[in-house]
Amino acid sequence: xxxxxxxxxxIIGGKAGxxxxxxxESMPLRRSVFAVKSIRAGELLTEExxxxxxxxxxxxxxYYSHALGKRALRDIERGEPIEFGxxxxx
Length: 90
Fold this sequence. Notes:
By secondary structure, the protein is an alpha+beta fold. It is 23% helix and 9% strand. The protein has helices at 2-12, 21-26, 64-67, and strands at 32-35, 50-53. It has a two-stranded antiparallel ribbon with strand order 1-2. The protein is elongated, with a radius of gyration of 18 Å. The mean pLDDT is 89.
């Protein structure tokens, strides 16, 4: 059984849970959440100031709706990737 698991890992391109070379190369082509306008600390994150665009170096698009309506914890510059620590939790 161990041999089969190792063989399967080789077939899919690496160790289980790791990132393959092809996957790493495709990261810039993915999308993530970015500030499209400058946002001041305390301002709400809205559809007008954050969007899902390329590259994929910010928060995953599936969390976009989670960020909407939250207040920024600090100033966020236009073009900055949105991450969880930049807005209020909850």
